[in-house]
Amino acid sequence: MTPFLIETPHTKEDCVKAIKHVYAAGYLTHFYWGCKVGDHTGYAIIEASDKAEALMVVPTLWRPQSKVIQLTQFTPEEIKQMHEKG
Predict the structure, then answer these.
(1) CATH architecture, domain 2-85
(2) pLDDT at residue 86 in the model
(3) Does the first or last residue of the chain, that is N or C, have fewer Cβ atoms within 10 Å of its Cβ?
């Protein structure tokens, strides 16, 4: 499984609706929200086998505007190799 960052923007007017849909889908505990500070976006980091599977945690209505980013953690050895390559 691979970690993915999901960004799900919505309008101020759709805020409560977006949160209720995420709750109904069973993923409320996976999401963090910027809504209280005016950033109407839900953020989640989830483990999935691919980008398409990761997007499935987003309610259908918000999938088209959502962004899914595959995440990577670097080991100290990988960083050392990067520095050696220049």
Answers:
(1) 2-Layer Sandwich (3.30)
(2) 66
(3) C
